Automatic annotation (TrEMBL):
Pathway: Amino-acid degradation; L-alanine degradation via transaminase pathway; pyruvate from L-alanine: step 1/1. PANTHER family: ALANINE AMINOTRANSFERASE, ALANINE TRANSAMINASE. Its EC number is 2.6.1.2. Homodimer. The lineage of its organism: Eukaryota, Metazoa, Spiralia, Lophotrochozoa, Mollusca. It catalyses: L-alanine + 2-oxoglutarate = pyruvate + L-glutamate. This is alanine transaminase. Residues 131-497 form the Aminotransferase class I/classII large domain. Belongs to the class-I pyridoxal-phosphate-dependent aminotransferase family. Alanine aminotransferase subfamily. It comes from Mytilus galloprovincialis (Mediterranean mussel). It comes from the Eukaryota.
Amino acid sequence: MRSARQRLHTICGHVKWSKEHGRVNLVQTRSKVLSTDNINPFVKNMEYAVRGPIVIRAAEIEQELKAGKSKPFSDVIRANIGDCHATGQKPLTFLRQVVAICTDPDRLMDDPKYPADAKSRAKRILSGCGGQSIGAYSDSSGVRVIREDIAAYITNRDGHPCNPDNIFLCTGASDGIKTIMKLCMTGEGGNKRAGVMIPIPQYPLYTATIAEYNACPINYYLNEDNNWSLDIPELKRSIQEARSHCVPRVLCVINPGNPTGQVLSRENIENVIQFAKEENLILMADEVYQHNVYAKGSAFHSFKKVLTEMGPEYQDIELASFMSTSKGYMGECGFRGGYCEAINLDPDVKVQLLKSISAKLCSSVSGQAAMDVVVNPPTSSEPSYPLFLKEKEQVLGDLKEKAKMVTETFNSMDRMSCNVVQGAMYAFPQINMPPAALEEAKKRGVPADVMYCFELLEKTGICVVPGSGFGQRPGTYHFRTTILPPVEKLKEMLERFRTFHEQFLSTYK
Ligand SMILES: Cc1ncc(COP(=O)(O)O)c(C=O)c1O
């Protein structure tokens, strides 16, 4: 027999009971407009593994440890996300000084504790801000003097001129990438959707944005057997297969690579540009790790430089390249600073791009100030140079040591192989899964790499991301780890990892 309350709920779901002053009342409510059945389906389709279920579980374990629950480890090591400062990296003194003075010029501009070069940088930035305040909106594309500093940095880096009008500041590189990708959408559905070529494995921002914009991912596999190189026959295969169900428009390249840690050779970049020309594609070059190159013989070549040097017949290729404050030796993820340089756009398209940026007003001006310091660091004749150099070299030196340590350690483990971490901040080792582990994963209804990573987390407190979150060739199993924990912590992490891996293999032998 149903109660009166149940009957009422059946009749009108929007009537709620409340008890007040000892009396039972009926309160008129309305049902939610949004449910997961009716929200934007493209948002529902988005996935972002780097902050996915394994990370939620890691946070729960941290709480359990805090509450005194006994575990075979005393802390969680978060090697799931490229968040440098969260893993212990210290901010660069000079960058913080400049941003601090920009933020509080009345008190700090005359403070003798702050060096003259930090003050002159801050003055220059503030001179470009409305009311000399970083609290004012900037031009939509960013503070003019900062764009000039970025252009000078690019000119100096590449040895070719850069026009500040081709640059816009953004809220982290993520925002710039989304802005350009949005511009490339066709506005149509079905097989007229824009096709976006992305590497597999990829940084999940790309698949998430493609899903959000209802575009069509065109997956090209990186060649794991050749240190994750980008092979032209594979690009050709993927675009040919995609033609029947979308309109290929964009080719995204991440160099140095995330999650794969490779650095593309100049020849490889030339071939990619040639391919983009032949296939009439817009190039998006994600170069946020341009300062993170460690391996002997590897060097960063910007797409802009290579394209410029390939000759006049390549100067019609539309190229957007992206940089960030979040990576390099700065690791200032929270400032959300970034820029995009877009070249060879049709002038009318540039107007439309600017309009779409204007609708967001501007990116955070403190993020822009941080970006300015990245492109305009102390020079050898300035007072802050020695400390700046020491801090920069410390971070990059440690990363280099850790890149080597991680590669060697994973390669020394049975049934594990890891390409050389040439750059960026990650390793993407492959686990040669024992058949019994594959069977067990099947029984549990989860991919084997997910099972591996969850067991690793539960038994050791190490949080890494399963390879399936980035994409991998079917039948292969990987995980991504950052190389960010401090050297001693990373050593400890790798020891915990080795013990776990040996136990895993003996369990499933
Ligand atoms: C390849 C790549 N591109 C873009 C981003 C986003 O950077 P930002 O913090 O500047 O948005 C990341 C962050 O990890 C990344 O790895």
